[in-house]
Write a structure and sequence with these properties.
Strand order of the largest sheet: 1-5-4-3-2
Structural class: alpha+beta
GO molecular function: transferase activity
Largest sheet: 5 strands, antiparallel
Radius of gyration: 17 Å
Number of helices: 5
Number of domains: 1
Distance between the termini: 11 Å
Pfam family, one: ACPS
Protein name: 4'-phosphopantetheinyl transferase superfamily protein
InterPro entries: 4-PPantetheinyl_Trfase_dom, 4-PPantetheinyl_Trfase_dom_sf
Number of strands: 11
Shape: globular
Keywords: Transferase
Order of helices and strands: EHHHHEEEEEHEEEEE
Oligomer: single chain
Amino acid sequence: MISAGNDIVALQAVDVQRTRLPAFYSKFITPAELALHNPNEIALVNFVWLLWSAKESAYKYQKRLDTELTFTPAKIAVQQLSVLGELKSDIDAHNQYKGELQLHHTTLPFLAVVTDQFIATVIDQGDVNWAVKQIEASDYETQSKAVRNFLLDNLKMPGVSIEKHAAGYPILIKEGQELDIAVSFAHHDRYISYAYQISK
């Protein structure tokens, strides 16, 4: 069965001082995970939110496969993290990371992009489509509408609507039938992101 999971953290919206406190990050980062931190490659604040984002992505991915699953980030173990290198574009410079985590008995690979503005992650399992966009406002209604339109504009599938499964994750509907496309949405402050995978 296909699935999708992604997350985004707007760095301008996080409490930097609180993030640096062991009393905060130790609630969801274990000593073994903290040992993965290389301060020469990534600042502690970014490392903390990268792991949070990866765990959130994994939860969304597995929730579609196990609707009874609850989000307990301390029990999602990031086991590997490595930098793929810095990429520069006309807009910004960013680092890409890859890693692996374990949720119960399932091992999932993830990709992450870290810029000065945001951290975005996606579970990199199968043929995944993934995109990030900045929007004008940060209220929930604007975020929710914008991320849905962002996906539909890029899918280019007329007649498709987005609804919510009873378990809480988004589903795509056409002519009253659920499509075999796994979708995940993320938004934080003025950033939105989607990920999807189409069954083949």
